[in-house]
Amino acid sequence: MDPVRFELIHVDRQTGARRGRLYTPHGTVETPVYMPVGTQATVKAMKPRDLEECGASIILSNTYHLYMRPGHMLVKELGGLHSFMNWDHPILTDSGGFQVFSLAGINDIRDDGVFFRSHIDGSRHFFTPESVMEIEEALGADIAMCFDECAPVPSEHSYALRAMNRTHRWAERCKASHTRKDQALFGIVQGNTYRDLRIESAKTLAAMDFPGYGIGGLSVGEPKPVMYEMLEEIMPFMPSPKPRYLMGVGSPDCLLEGIRRGVDMFDCVLQTRSARNGLALTRTGRIMLRNAKYERDSRPIEDGCDCYACRHYSRAYLRHLIKANEILAAMLITEHNIRFSVRLMEDARKAIEEDRYGDFSSELLGGGIYTN
Amino acid sequence: MDPVRFELIHVDRQTGARRGRLYTPHGTVETPVYMPVGTQATVKAMKPRDLEECGASIILSNTYHLYMRPGHMLVKELGGLHSFMNWDHPILTDSGGFQVFSLAGINDIRDDGVFFRSHIDGSRHFFTPESVMEIEEALGADIAMCFDECAPVPSEHSYALRAMNRTHRWAERCKASHTRKDQALFGIVQGNTYRDLRIESAKTLAAMDFPGYGIGGLSVGEPKPVMYEMLEEIMPFMPSPKPRYLMGVGSPDCLLEGIRRGVDMFDCVLQTRSARNGLALTRTGRIMLRNAKYERDSRPIEDGCDCYACRHYSRAYLRHLIKANEILAAMLITEHNIRFSVRLMEDARKAIEEDRYGDFSSELLGGGIYTN
User: Fold this and answer.
1) Is there a contact between B241 and B8 (Cβ–Cβ < 8 Å)?
2) In chain B, where does DSSP find H-type helix?
């Protein structure tokens, strides 16, 4: 029996949007779902309890960062990631692939693995599909991701092809070396912005029969229409009974557009990172709370929002906190942005169930929902 | 009818420690009490809800800071401090006296008031007893403090005398100009480290019949025994039916020593400030959570503590958060330090009720409780 199982409940008749359910060892996740990011074993400025209240049902944590600090063996020794960070709900860990190829200093990409330098202290490290499986198993998330090569955009077709093929060989090796029975391993579709490669990657991964699939290497600088086109190209080749996870996406518009094209899972740091800069998301656009125009504004961030910040605080107060460099500013705005995104997913799920997701998403996209 | 009323419930037979109760427009405060400090209309890194869960019953906010930013008229316009910061429990505001004489750049101390420069932008301001009353009334705390001159330690006797007399004249003027019926105004005893001045100040203020008294100008660099001696000297002259508030104190040892000498109220930033540096208070000493020796320590900060941090997290996790510069570190350690201090007061109150406060405080002071 697979530790993680996906149930496709309904497909919206107006679009290809999917309403599903993901069963994991730490609980059930209703999809489509937005996963807040807890890079260093904490969703920045949020207690787990606050996350629960926001309705977050699953979070992502970053393998590369936890390997670097505090070290996966320490996390394991302290009972694994769930216990370490006091989050008794589902967790997904990425593979570090994206970070190794973007954040760290790459020394050498070889077929057996990647030499890179730590972004913290410059120390030299070597990741292989096997070592990444060992790290992810030590962390003990419900869902682990395969180690992949995330080629930059733009890349030559020839390079994108090599990176894709390496990603496929690495996926085989990850699968072969993954042993943990209470953890699912998802494959990752690559192929850069090339239609033929994306389709080939989707087919190849599908043949490997993973319990779920990431779609990687998108939202890395290409125009959004290119990302949407890639999604449309691959979807016919993505196995329908398996969950589809668009990695590192999204802003509110990308969430809506991704769902419309059949994506089930998303993660993004926009919600938390922008909050720390005083940017609040709303269905009618962004609010830069630092701006002078909010100085005496007694309204909440967003009318109708049920988050702790909106229930208790004015924009004027939040602006004051930002100007005064108070930690509470980050805490409250993060809470709003996460609740905003979770609520958007709740409403999207309802719209899918009622076969009106096309109308629902079009209305929000036309109404000026925040896009970054 | 006074807006704030104090009830002396019991005096410990082993010491002069007092068990009391303070009735305010926003609720009842059991004394002795530690008041967390919310300088800029937020107790740093804490939601009001978290404060409530720590058992905090009253907080302090700083008039000088709020006058500077966001401005007392803005706070008033947004419904006053309670509403602005979402704290529907008692609040005490200091008078800005201490900040004007320590934080700001003093230009000129005159009998009618003080010219000073903002620590934020260097702009020039003038505080008088009357203007401070206006500011504190706009903020709308349950308890306001008189504007006082806080002379540095050491000061010549002649200067300390002049500052004390000015403080007394200003207290008269504060009383005369204070109009808000739902706000109590406390006087402040000054006199530097001079026994004769302290006694004279206590007597003079007592004659003015304030509903409560601050003891100011202590814990500003003098040795602790000097502070304790000053407390002992003045207590016979402090009206017993009125609450006594030792301003800007204290560390755990000072809380215990102050209570022993008849103090009812305390405020201190140590709990929150040190938390942001990774220092946790315990009954057997401080824990510098950043230290390498806590790297693999699976124990909570303090055994037996019921705070959120101690119920859910290991020292190893907290150390990781500190090393990774995560905001959650400040949030969790602050919560512990406040709960620690509130719980210390809870236990002190119980010990007083049972006439064993002498034993209680001696045991803790002998057991290595954190002293700063």
Assistant:
1) yes
2) 48-53, 63-68, 72-77, 81-85, 97-102, 129-139, 157-177, 195-208, 224-234, 252-260, 270-276, 308-312, 315-323, 327-353, 357-366
CB contact B333 to A (< 8 Å)? no
**Pairing relationship of beta strands B91-93 and A5-11 according to DSSP bridges:** unpaired
Residues 6+ apart with CB under 8 A from A325: none
Q: What interhelical angle do B327-353 and B252-260 show, nearest 10?
A: 20
Total CB pairs under 8 A between chain A and B: 102
Q: Which of A74, A328, A336 to mutate to test the interface with B (most CBs of B within 10 A)?
A: A328
Pairing mode, strands B114-117 and B105-109: antiparallel
Residue appearing with tokens 């049902």: A57
> Residues A314, A320, A323, CA angle at the centre, nearest 5°?
145
d(CA A362, CA B174): 62
Residue A324 corresponds to which tokens in the numbers above?
A: 């005064």
Measured between beta carbons, which residues in chain A are less than 8 angstroms from residue B78? Answer: 296, 298, 314, 316-317
> What is the number of other CB atoms lying within 10 angstroms of the CB of residue B272?
22
Q: Mind listing the pLDDT tens digit for each residue in B96-111?
A: 989 988 877 877 899 9
Asked if the Cβ–Cβ distance from A327 to B328 is below 8 Å, we say no
Q: What confidence tens digit (pLDDT) does each residue in B149-197 have?
A: 999 999 999 999 999 999 999 999 999 999 999 999 999 999 999 999 9
Contacts of B326 in chain A (CB under 8 A): 40, 42, 44
- Residues A48-60 pLDDT 10s: 999 999 999 999 9
In this prediction the ipTM stands at 0.97
